[in-house]
Automatic annotation (TrEMBL):
PANTHER family: UPF0111 PROTEIN YKAA. Belongs to the UPF0111 family. This is DUF47 family protein. It holds the Pfam family PhoU_div. SUPFAM superfamilies: PhoU-like (SSF109755). InterPro entries: PhoU-like_sf (IPR038078), Put_Phosphate_transp_reg (IPR018445), UPF0111_domain (IPR052912).
Length: 207
């Protein structure tokens, strides 16, 4: 039986992934209903989520310092918590770039990417909900595969969108802006895959 005040690292991972998913949904909704008038409000909202995620990660690390026998290896807990937090940071970074480059309107293909990031974060969240029971779960592996498949989809979308951009856009400043934003969008998918890879690594080490 679990001790009454025992810290549950697996629940903490789920909580961290919830921040990532919330950030992805804000990014997607902000760009689908884009208005420079409300952008600063959305950035503030996003930053509050990122700050909460950082606090949750720091609490986990502080608990780990006092933990006698963690459920999985300490370095795996630290790595996984950092990589989940990296997803939230990567998503926030996209919105910051939109603001920094003074973007006035959103290209339609960008919305394909933001929806893909939401899908990645949803799959990651479901995987982490199953992670505590990784030795018995019948769905965890399929969720990891789904994250990997979505990341591959992101790679293809990045390549085709960049190609289309350089075929149709002749303004060098526009090219620079959207290339950078697309790079940041792809990094969101890469960050999700990094978490999935860590989960899979823990499964292999403990099976």
């Amino acid at each position: 039986m679990a001790r009454k005040n025992e810290y549950n690292y697996f629940e903490a991972f789920v909580n961290l992934s919830k921040f990532s998913l919330q950030s992805a949904e804000i990014l997607n909704n902000t760009l689908r209903n884009f208005s420079t008038k409300y952008l600063s409000d959305r950035i503030k909202e996003m930053h509050e989520i990122e700050h909460s995620a950082d606090q949750a990660k720091h609490e986990m690390v502080n608990r780990l310092l006092k933990e006698f026998l963690p459920p999985i290896e300490r370095e795996d807990i630290i790595s996984l918590s950092q990589k989940i937090d990296d997803v939230t940071d990567a998503v926030e970074d996209v919105l910051l770039r939109i603001d920094m480059f003074n973007v006035q309107s959103i290209r339609p293909e960008i919305l394909e990417f933001t929806q893909l990031i939401v899908n990645c974060c949803q799959a990651l969240h479901l995987a982490l909900k199953e992670f505590e029971n990784f030795k018995k779960s019948t769905t965890l592996h399929s969720q990891i595969v789904k994250v990997n498949s979505l990341e591959e989809e992101g790679d293809k979308l990045y390549t085709t969108t960049i190609k289309k951009l350089y075929q149709n856009c002749k303004d060098p400043i526009e090219l620079m802006i959207w290339t950078e934003i697309l790079n940041r969008l792809e990094k969101c998918c890469d960050a999700c895959e990094a978490v999935a890879d860590d989960i899979h690594s823990v499964m292999m080490k403990n099976s």
